[in-house]
Write a structure and sequence with these properties.
The complex is a heterodimer of chains A (about 800) and B (about 220). Chain A is of the alpha+beta class. Chain A contains 26 helices and 19 strands. Among the domains of chain A are: about 180 residues, no CATH class; about 150 residues, no CATH class; about 140 residues, no CATH class. In chain A, the strands form four sheets. In chain A, strands 11, 12, 13, 14, 15, 16 and 17 form a seven-stranded mixed sheet that branches. Chain A has a six-stranded mixed sheet with strand order 6-3-2-7-1-8. Chain B is of the alpha/beta class. Chain B has one domain: P-loop containing nucleotide triphosphate hydrolases (Rossmann fold, 3-Layer(aba) Sandwich). Chain B has seven helices and ten strands. In chain B, the strands form two sheets. In chain B, strands 6-7-8-3-9-10 form a six-stranded mixed sheet, with helices on both faces. In chain B, strands 2-1-4-5 form a four-stranded antiparallel sheet, with helices on one face. In chain B, strand 9 and strand 10 form a beta hairpin. In chain B, helix 3 packs across helix 4 and helix 5 packs parallel to helix 6. Chain B is globular and about 50 Å long. The two termini of chain B are about 20 Å apart. The chains are: A alpha+beta (about 800), B alpha/beta (about 220). The interface between A and B is medium-sized, with 32 and 34 residues. Bound molecules: adenosine-5'-triphosphate (ATP) and magnesium ion. The site of adenosine-5'-triphosphate has 10 residues of chain B, from helix 1.
């Protein structure tokens, strides 16, 4: 009995293989996009999760100096004598092939047990690592970049990529520093100690969460990706819903016969569930492979972005855990369950011999539409709460609530639009066209919602990207004032360089800086000379009128937007700088792409206050071509070519980082739109079989099948057009949230919004074409439909 | 002669060889004449009406309507005949579900470019007060009245009705059938009507019986 029923059910797919293909395609696309994005996120998170753990001391409270300067060895000794269990850490950077490598120096003896760094060192390595000339450890990939270290370098597992682990003394020597960057406080301390502020008042405790956290900086990037993955998944589910709906609708007579033959509704639902499960498993496996391909294709771009934007080190290669495979299969099953639930419920409730009532069905979904509208209202309220709450999470709640509300409200808004347009219709065919379009709305609404989401994501992200590019290019032009950037090998060469450039350039601008802790956060302090090129070009957002005059006389400080927003500082406010001196904020400038704070002070002040500053970088103004000077500097002055970067190359490099970020979102954008197109196609196919009772009378009255087919095509294009018109404001709202809220919360800078109507026009053409293309096949099918099919409506009980 | 059917042959593909459903059927309907068509289930009544209405092609023979052979027309040509000259009333699902009763009633007249008042039609069909409703809100008998009204409103020369009362109970069926015959006579419209009921067939001017693919008088 069961076998006979299964055979009857499955025979459907043999007769309609294409339908099975769409179903599998939709489900595997959804799974693929979702798990692809998950793979990218997991891979990136894993990499810098490891790094952050080791660097951050694994959640231990730390002691640092308020002014950000190194802690002297004698202070460390005094604290130990005071009865404190602390372990020193040196944290710096050295040059390596393909960028810098982070050096982490630890004291293996005093290291609190259980910290990741302590666990990364195997006991047998412990002794070999000790001391100034001890062994240095890195993971195998990073080791290949550290060619200059020779025999001392050994590889080890469990060390984060981009990290060199060393003994505290060896690390201090490698980074050329006396003293320690921070002291880790052991969680188990003796009962009696001398109070810390008596031993070293300049030290402050830093809670683990304020330790520099790459995760937070990159969170928004990953949230972006996740949001995209989720969106694509949702759009893919629309396809599945369409295909499953179609398969169920077409098998209704079979279901009815089976029921009439004594198969219980329960058994029928069970068998259908089994069938769906099998399909979900197959699609899940295909989807995981697709996800792997997507992730492998996008990961190099993502890795480059994270490296360039945040200095986060991510392997460009993909390793997958069994968990990822399992979750891919699970998400496919979950998606199928979500998409097929309504169909299954309908089968379970189907009265044995009730005739199909398409209009009753449409009215039932009409009440669902009112439900949706109410839900849309609630989403909007949630969005507003998110807006009022503020912070990054509030921004994302606003974003999600807004998008969901827009999608849910779409069918109702379209219905109102159609009713309004229908009033203007003249003639019976036009009247019928609009009435019929209105009736089809519930059946098409899922696909149209998918289209709305895809289009507004496209407009929103497109606007953000283009605004970013426009602003960023303009800003780069302002910020990169020098024609050539020169880095000295040795500070002692400074006078020689000055003399060398005296006659060969227009001006030499030292770009000296010190990395420091400003108001409790990481920051860079730069010194600038008095030169008109700054006052002419520097991208100021707000400033005192005499900002440059003050710099000229050695007063005031400019800060970047990030620092200004983080600390709520405006021109005129006092600013406390490391070393315990105070100056006044005289201006705020935009500083895109920089995750940390920046302070610009007059160069003489920098030299005076921070003698340890890095004095190797210079900007050079050249009249005309930079090539001759570059050659002279490398051949006559003897600087390595790598130390000479001209402005154009620097600009190109900076822009390329952003281009790659956006290549990732761009690719996902296109994929989402394609998926929406497929959703429309499957919805139309689903409707096509249900619509015969509506079309047959019109046909019998003398409208040819060809005309009917053409009308179907026009309908799809018209609905896509309406949806597009509604997607523009939604997309712009999305762009505004991204630029004015998410960006500010995540990165600390705000971008002006630029509009690019020409891009929308292109997108409009694209979406109309997609809708037309999607309806072409159903329309052709209708035009070619055998009259007998249409006639059956009148003569046979369906 | 309004309609002349000559030697129409229709075969359907069978499981091994074609089944001949109509085997040289000839008949005619004069203007304003009411003709009843009877025959067992499966005898080919519907098939014959579909061929006359241009809804289905035939394999041999000719359907001459007002001197024009409909079998020679293409899809668009036959559709245009249906729009203005031949109306069809089926057993069920005649109405357009997305339009109101009012819109359904005047739909075909508008297609044919004929003036028609929905109110007058409703009056004569006993459908007062139903104009704003949708088809599914009406009973089967009411729906068939709308279908009849719609067919006649376009002022066609011929109405083809395929068991228009087959889905209705005895009393309602008789009333609808009588309404159709009366209205057709009123307007001098030709009417070819297929039915299983001998009693209703007796109301027609003339009767034809279809059996084994051939007509008997
Ligand atoms: N599209 C088709 N394909 C194959 N055979 C068909 C098709 N349409 C009708 N037939 C066959 O043609 C024969 C006549 O069918 P038709 O519907 O014309 O009979 P009918 O006299 O109208 O019967 P009823 O009184 O039950 O409505 C039947 O045997 C039927 O099986
Ligand atoms: Mg019949």
């Amino acid at each position: 009995m069961t076998w006979a029923v299964i055979r009857a059910l499955l025979s459907h797919w043999r007769r309609r293989p294409f339908q099975l293909v769409t179903l599998l395609l939709g489900l595997s696309l959804a799974t693929g996009l979702w798990s692809g994005v998950q793979a990218i996120n997991a891979e990136a998170r894993k990499s810098y999760g490891e790094a952050a753990d080791i660097l951050g001391g694994g959640g231990l409270t730390e002691l640092v100096r308020q002014d950000g300067a190194p802690i002297l060895p004698q202070t460390f000794v005094a604290i130990r004598r005071g009865g404190w269990l602390v372990s020193p850490v040196v944290d710096g950077w050295i040059e390596a092939d393909r960028g810098r490598v982070r050096v982490l120096g630890v004291d293996p003896f005093s290291m609190p047990a259980g910290t990741p760094a302590a666990m990364a060192i195997a006991p047998q390595d412990l002794t070999t690592m000790l001391g100034r000339n001890g062994v240095l450890m890195a993971d195998p990939v990073t080791a290949t970049r550290l060619t200059g270290l020779g025999e001392r370098l050994q590889t080890g597992e469990g060390i984060a990529p981009g990290l060199l682990l060393a003994d505290i003394e060896a690390a201090a020597e490698l980074v050329g520093q006396v003293g320690y960057d921070r002291l880790l406080l052991d969680p188990k301390q003796p009962l009696r100690q001398t109070p810390l502020n008596e031993i070293a008042p300049e030290l402050q405790r830093r809670a683990p969460e304020t330790a520099e956290d790459l995760g937070r900086l990159t969170d928004s990037f990953h949230l972006n990706l996740t949001a995209f993955g989720l969106l694509s998944f949702a759009v893919g589910l629309f396809i599945v819903n369409g295909s499953v709906g179609l398969a169920f609708e077409q098998r209704r007579p079979v279901f009815r016969t089976l029921r009439a033959l004594g198969v219980t509704a329960r058994r029928l639902v069970w068998l259908l569930t089994l069938e769906l499960l099998a399909i979900a498993l197959v699609a899940g496996v295909i989807g995981i492979f697709m996800g792997y391909l997507i992730a492998a294709a996008l990961l190099p771009d993502v890795a480059a972005t994270l490296r360039g934007l945040y200095g986060a080190s991510v392997d460009g290669a993909l390793t997958l855990s069994p968990l990822w495979w399992l979750s891919g299969i699970a998400i496919a099953c979950l998606g199928t369950a979500l998409a097929a639930a309504s169909g299954l419920i309908r089968v379970a409730r189907m009265p044995l011999l009730a005739p199909a009532k398409p209009r009753a069905w449409a009215m039932a979904t009409g009440s669902a539409m009112r439900w949706q509208l109410a839900l849309a209202g609630h989403s909007l309220v949630v969005a507003l709460i998110g807006f009022a709450f503020g912070e990054l999470i509030g921004g994302f709640i606003l974003l999600g609530g807004f998008l969901i509300a827009a999608a849910l409200a779409l069918p109702s808004v379209l219905a109102v639009l159609i009713v309004a347009v229908a009033r203007l219709a003249k003639g019976p065919v036009a009247t019928w066209f609009w009435a019929d379009t209105r009736q089809q709305l519930p059946g098409l609404s899922l696909a149209l919602m998918a289209l709305l989401l895809a289009l507004s994501a496209n407009i929103g992200v497109g606007t953000m990207v283009a605004s970013f590019r426009t602003t960023f290019t303009g800003w780069l032009d302002q910020r990169l004032v020098s024609d050539l950037y020169v880095t000295l090998e040795n500070t002692a060469d400074t006078p020689a360089l000055m003399a060398f450039l005296e006659t060969r350039s227009e001006a030499v601008l030292p770009i000296w800086h010190v990395d420091a802790e400003v108001l409790g956060g990481p920051a860079e302090i730069y010194g600038v000379v008095d030169h008109p090129i700054y006052s002419e070009n520097w991208p100021l957002l707000a400033a005192n009128p005499d900002v440059w005059e003050q710099i000229a006389v050695g007063e005031g400080a400019l800060i970047n937007e990030q620092l200004s927003r983080r600390e709520g500082l405006a021109p005129g406010d006092p600013l406390l700088l490391p070393g315990g001196w105070e100056t006044t904020v005289t201006g705020v400038y935009s500083d895109y792409g920089n995750p940390i704070g920046q302070v610009v002070i007059p160069l003489p002040v920098l030299i005076d206050r921070y003698p340890q500053a890095d004095k190797t970088d210079f900007g050079v103004l050249v009249d005309g071509d930079t090539e001759p000077l570059k050659r002279a500097l490398s051949e006559d002055f003897g600087l390595p070519v790598e130390n000479l970067v001209d402005q154009a190359a620097l600009k190109a490099f900076s822009l390329s980082i952003f281009e790659r970020t956006f290549a990732v979102t761009g690719a996902l954008n296109i994929l989402t739109l394609a998926v929406a197109g497929i959703a429309i196609l499957t919805s139309l196919l689903t409707l096509a079989s249900m619509r015969l009772p509506q079309l047959a009378p019109v046909w019998a009255l003398g409208i040819t099948r060809k005309t009917l087919g053409r009308i179907e095509l026009i309908r799809a294009v018209v609905l896509a057009g309406f949806t597009f018109v509604l997607a523009v404001p939604v997309g712009l709202g999305l762009a505004w949230v991204l630029l004015a809220i998410i960006n500010v919360e995540a990165f600390g800078w705000r971008l002006p919004m630029h509009l690019f109507p020409r891009d929308w026009l292109w997108l409009a053409v694209l979406s109309l074409a997609a809708a037309g293309l999607a309806s072409l096949w159903p329309a052709r099918q209708l035009a070619k439909r055998p009259p007998a099919d249409l006639m059956r409506v009148f003569t046979h009980e369906r | 002669m309004l309609l002349d059917v000559r030697n129409v042959v229709k075969r359907f593909p069978g499981s091994d060889q074609p089944v001949t459903v109509l085997d040289g059927v000839s008949m005619s309907v004069a203007a304003g004449e009411t003709v009843a068509l009877t025959g067992e289930s499966g005898s080919g009544k519907s098939t014959l009406l579909h061929i006359i209405g241009g809804l289905e092609p035939c394999d041999e023979g000719a359907v001459i309507f007002e001197g024009t052979d409909l079998t020679g027309l293409d899809d668009a040509g036959r559709a245009s005949v249906r729009r203005s000259n031949i109306s069809v009333v089926f057993q069920q699902f005649n109405l357009i579900p997305s339009l109101t009763i009012e819109q359904n009633l005047t739909f075909q007249a508008q297609l044919a470019g004929v003036q028609a008042s929905a109110d007058d039609l409703a009056q004569s069909l006993g459908l007062q007060g139903q104009l704003r409703k949708y088809p599914e809100e009406l009973s089967g008998g009411q729906q068939q009245r709308v279908a009849i009204g719609r067919a006649l409103a376009a002022a066609p020369k011929l109405v083809l009705a395929d068991e228009p009362t087959g889905n209705l109970d005895e009393t309602t069926g008789s009333a609808v059938f009588e309404l159709l015959v009366a209205q057709a006579r009123d307007r001098a419209t030709g009417l070819l009507i297929a039915t299983h009921s001998e009693r209703l067939a007796g109301l027609a001017d003339r009767r034809l019986h279809l059996s084994h693919g051939r007509l008997t008088g």
